[in-house]
Amino acid sequence: MKVGYARVSNENQNLDAQIEELQAAGCETIFQENISAVTTIKPELENALLLLTAGDTLVVCKLDRLGRRTIELVSFLESLKNRDIGFHSLMDGIDSSNGAIGDAYGIILNGFSELERDLARGRARRGFEVTRASKKRSGPKEKVPDDNIKKGIQLLMTTDKDGQPRTGSAVAKTIGLSRSSFYRRIKKLKADEQE
Fold it and tell me: What is the pTM of this model?
């Protein structure tokens, strides 16, 4: 018996294409899931594994439907092999019925996928570091300019019309920030001036 497993990471994605491919591959039962690849426990995949017995085959459209990390996939495929359950990834061309070559191909292919994800994360991290080094902010600009924060600091050193010291909350409200945001910005200004 062929059992299919289809997974998407978020609700905006659609399982229809995967289901059609799995049906075309002869899957009698298809388990569907909407869950992130990095989630360790995938309930519908667990249900598929409970249904599978020796001689059956688990079918997915792509290897990454099972997970992202090579070591986890190797362990998963090894557990299927130990239970005498076949594995077939349609788009990757991996079919455990092809013997050692099918197993090795799956491991190598997933290794390259993980390498590419690591490289992409590294590129993103370097981009943030370059941005930080050039003192350019990533993300949205501050709604209240630094000049207003400096004026707020000056206001803190004065008294109100009743001769009472001004509070951080009152000054923050005057310049259009919450008290915590005002003090965060003061701290940031001081840090920028020290660099």
Answer: 0.54
